[in-house]
Amino acid sequence: MKNLDYEKYQLLFLEKLQKEGKSFNTIKNYKTDLNIFKQFLISKGRQLSLTEVTLQELQEFNLYLNNKYSSANSIRRRIQALRIFFDYLISQAIFDENPIKKILVAPKVVNLPKPASFSLVKDLHQYLKHHIENSRGHEKLLALRNMMLFYLIYGAGLKVSDIERLNSFHISQFKKTYRVLISPEKRDPFSVLLPDSFSDYYEQYQQVLDNAKNKDHIEFEHFLFNANPFKILSGGLSARGIEIIFKEFSQLLKSQITAKNLRQACIFKWLCQKQTESQIKEWMGVQPQYSLAPYTTLIKEEPHKYSYLEL
Fold it and tell me: At CA 136, angle to CA 131 and CA 140, rounded to 5?
């Protein structure tokens, strides 16, 4: 068998992912993980030839990862990236079987949820409410946008990736109740019920936003927007933009609050409302086999600590 260049097929593999519509971050993560294996081969003084990769070498790479990384999940992710890459090589008739499947990997570690405390959630909501009531102009628009962000996460449990893709037409009303439509990349769309109090701010947000768009001569379909303290910059709010907003919240409230721990608080809220597990899983956008045991266990152990309500 002739030597086949590792870097060439890695590039072809990444191009294949791009053609399949994988996100920029997904492709970036694959590239990073595969580059770690490439650097491992280089450190051994090896030519980057696929035909020279052996099972023993892959086992040494697994040991190398275990020594380099303390997180079992990080190790699993890098092995998984390599496994999928070798599946691609099989499809190209370079390998007859996937050698990665013979490597024993530590089981996935399920981290216990660490939600924002209910008192912190209430403090954030109260701060946003006060800010809306006591601001004007562009500052008021930013306050309303941040309240919408709060309701999308604590009210509807949306992930940052869902919020990034959210357009105005994804919010709809039926019998005085608002819902948000989620359109995942790999499954059918579904909608999540928003709290009744969402309507207290939604119509005000839409009106103030429309006025600002007209003033700044800007148009977009995104539900949220990116802005500086003086004007709207563009439609849409990226993961980085959301992270910056939550850092500001944490500084103002002198306690760490993130999109992730606010979303976990929402899941506890749903459980406290006695929503069915199947309904919660649908709203979370996870598979039926996903386990809510870490949440239900914590509620049983410390019911008062994990009691969350609507605001």
Answer: 50
Q: What is the pLDDT along the chain (311 residues), one digit of tens a residue?
A: 344 577 888 899 999 988 888 888 888 989 999 999 888 888 877 666 776 777 788 888 888 888 887 777 788 888 888 889 988 988 888 878 888 877 766 555 567 899 999 999 999 999 999 999 999 999 999 999 999 999 999 999 999 999 998 999 999 998 889 999 998 776 788 999 999 999 989 999 999 999 999 988 999 999 999 999 999 999 999 999 999 999 999 999 999 999 999 999 999 999 999 999 999 999 998 888 888 999 999 999 999 999 999 98
The CA-atom distances, in angstroms, between 118 and each of 219, 237, 268 are 37, 26, 10
What is d(CA 183, CA 204) in angstroms, rounded to the nearest whole number? 25
Pairing of strands 190-193, 177-182: antiparallel
Unique residue bearing structure tokens 């590239």: 31
